[in-house]
């Protein structure tokens, strides 16, 4: 449908009125009101914990509000469940994993909606698979098929399954919560295309991301939230990065937060992989990390970089070759890694880096617990509390108390906990896979500062990232991996630039 034929942006398609959400003593949303027109891509921006996901999940039928109202096309919107919301035209891609591993792609796509294929008492499974495959083909998704078990897919492909699932219902309202950072370039391109097509056909998109450039490029309007309160709205013509940041954090935030000096690193090797071969991705791969080095690793999502991070931490089965520290200690398991002061932040935070049902305190204290011992195995409560509180304070983790359950925290705050637990444990080597995924600009700046301070203190960092600016801005040396092999290696002093890195990626 042609845009001009739509009353794009005029009549409110989605209206939020005085929306409040209270979780115990936490006010996640406080009388938020705004409206979004038909065919509009509306961005929701705000710091970690500002209420974006809470608002989105209320619209998507995942939870109800404490008070306030939502209207969809002028009618009161009160879906009883996500499935009902989906059927009635509201679909959401959640921030973390929204798929189930031990069933196929097709079954995930139609989860809870199988009765669409019911024939009498039976489900026509063949039809279900055919329909799912048709959907994948129509969306241009070809990296897996409808019969693939989702457990075999990486995070990016699992996100594509969620996107396909949402698209099946041709939603009136499509909500994308911090999804792009889990996607590679190809995945992002696909998502942007779908968002564009949907809005051109009169659908409304609620888009959440911490990448301001991306938001300014793809959104027609931006709504800014701060601490659960509506701060204001901006039309595309008024976009200005500094103004938006100021609205988000309530103060000026200028400048470049990467590190600019070229002070290099020591020759001493602290971690080495010698000709390692893993079940997937890596075949005879070698790499060295030096003391005081920030080694950036980049490439396309499936190039092997995420597997490398796991392998160096002892979390990936190594079929041949070995990983060892500078003093020759072999790293064959995560236990070996932790004992040798190696930390690891997974890209798949919720599944691999956190105990979601544990408290903030239990998570932060989990790796460095020995540091809080007083007599033999006895842990000092006071020491442990100080140890945990320092991270909560230094990283500004928004939680009601150290006893707050981790799964109720916002995405960015969860990421800070993972970072905090390894810093507190005094890691000498930190392997970070996409560490700033889902993290707001203020925290990003704080994390970069901490990475740089760690480097200055002689610690070594492997920064695996899909953000080229981050690699260029933070690394002493960047290795680009292509199809499991080193495609290029560039020292910061030789001049790093996007063009050069992209050339070796593809
Ligand atoms: N189920 C819950 N129980 C208790 N508190 C919650 C729950 N869900 C969210 N919160 C709290 O509500 C506040 C808003 O969280 P929300 O996830 O909406 O923020 P966000 O803006 O999406 O953050 P991020 O950018 O980090 O994803 C946070 O303080 C969070 O800890």
UniProtKB/TrEMBL annotation:
<dbReference type="InterPro" id="IPR003593">
    <property type="entry name" value="AAA+_ATPase"/>
</dbReference>
<dbReference type="InterPro" id="IPR003439">
    <property type="entry name" value="ABC_transporter-like_ATP-bd"/>
</dbReference>
<keyword id="KW-0547">Nucleotide-binding</keyword>
<dbReference type="GO" id="GO:0016887">
    <property type="term" value="F:ATP hydrolysis activity"/>
</dbReference>
<feature type="domain" description="ABC transporter">
    <location>
        <begin position="265"/>
        <end position="505"/>
    </location>
</feature>
<dbReference type="GO" id="GO:0005524">
    <property type="term" value="F:ATP binding"/>
</dbReference>
<keyword id="KW-0813">Transport</keyword>
<keyword id="KW-0677">Repeat</keyword>
<dbReference type="InterPro" id="IPR027417">
    <property type="entry name" value="P-loop_NTPase"/>
</dbReference>
<dbReference type="InterPro" id="IPR017871">
    <property type="entry name" value="ABC_transporter-like_CS"/>
</dbReference>
<feature type="domain" description="ABC transporter">
    <location>
        <begin position="14"/>
        <end position="252"/>
    </location>
</feature>
<protein>
    <submittedName>
        <fullName>Ribose transport system ATP-binding protein</fullName>
    </submittedName>
</protein>
<dbReference type="Pfam" id="PF00005">
    <property type="entry name" value="ABC_tran"/>
</dbReference>
<dbReference type="InterPro" id="IPR050107">
    <property type="entry name" value="ABC_carbohydrate_import_ATPase"/>
</dbReference>
<keyword id="KW-0067">ATP-binding</keyword>
């Amino acid at each position: 449908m042609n845009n001009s034929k739509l009353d794009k942006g005029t009549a409110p398609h989605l209206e939020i009125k005085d929306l409040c959400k209270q979780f115990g003593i936490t006010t996640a949303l406080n009388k938020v009101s705004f409206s979004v027109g038909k065919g509009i891509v509306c961005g929701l921006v705000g710091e970690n914990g500002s209420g974006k996901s809470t608002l989105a999940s209320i619209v998507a039928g995942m939870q109800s509000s404490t008070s306030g109202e939502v209207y969809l096309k002028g009618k009161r919107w009160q879906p009883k469940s996500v499935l009902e919301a989906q059927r009635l035209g509201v679909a959401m891609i959640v921030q973390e994993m929204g798929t189930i591993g031990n069933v196929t792609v097709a079954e995930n796509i139609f989860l809870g909606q199988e009765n669409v294929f019911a024939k009498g008492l039976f489900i026509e499974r063949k039809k279900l698979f055919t329909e799912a495959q048709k959907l994948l083909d129509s969306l241009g998704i070809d990296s897996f098929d409808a019969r693939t078990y989702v457990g075999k897919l990486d995070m990016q492909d699992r996100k594509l399954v969620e996107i396909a699932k949402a698209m099946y219902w041709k939603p009136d309202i499509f909500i994308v919560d911090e999804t792009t950072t889990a996607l590679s370039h190809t995945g992002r391109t696909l998502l942007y295309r779908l968002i564009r097509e949907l809005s051109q056909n009169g659908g409304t998109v609620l888009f959440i991301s911490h990448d301001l450039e991306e938001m300014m490029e793809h959104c027609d309007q931006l709504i800014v939230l701060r601490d659960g309160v509506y701060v204001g709205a901006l039309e595309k013509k008024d976009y200005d990065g500094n103004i938006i940041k100021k609205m988000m954090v309530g103060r000026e935030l200028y400048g470049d937060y990467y590190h600019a000096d070229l002070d290099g690193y020591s020759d001493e090797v602290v971690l080495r992989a010698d000709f390692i071969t893993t079940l997937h991705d890596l075949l005879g791969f070698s790499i060295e990390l030096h003391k005081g080095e920030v080694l950036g690793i980049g490439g396309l999502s499936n190039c092997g970089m995420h597997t490398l991070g796991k392998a160096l931490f002892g979390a990936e089965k190594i079929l041949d070759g070995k990983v060892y520290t500078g003093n020759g200690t072999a790293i064959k398991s995560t236990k070996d890694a932790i004992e040798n002061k190696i930390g690891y932040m997974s890209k798949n935070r919720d599944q691999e880096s956190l105990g979601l049902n544990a408290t903030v305190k239990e998570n932060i204290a989990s790796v460095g617990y020995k540091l809080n011992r007083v007599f033999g195995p006895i842990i000092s409560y006071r020491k442990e509390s100080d140890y945990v509180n320092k991270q909560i304070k230094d990283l500004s983790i928004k939680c009601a108390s150290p006893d707050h359950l981790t799964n109720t925290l916002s995405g960015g705050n969860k990421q800070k906990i993972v970072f905090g637990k390894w810093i507190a444990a005094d890691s000498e080597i930190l392997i970070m896979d996409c560490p700033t995924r889902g993290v707001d600009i203020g925290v990003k700046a704080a994390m970069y500062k901490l990475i740089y301070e760690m480097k200055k203190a002689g610690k070594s960092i492997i920064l695996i990232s899909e953000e080229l600016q981050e690699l260029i801005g933070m690394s002493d040396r960047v290795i680009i991996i292509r199809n499991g092999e080193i495609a290029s290696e560039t020292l910061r002093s030789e001049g790093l630039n996007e063009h050069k890195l992209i050339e070796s990626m593809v």
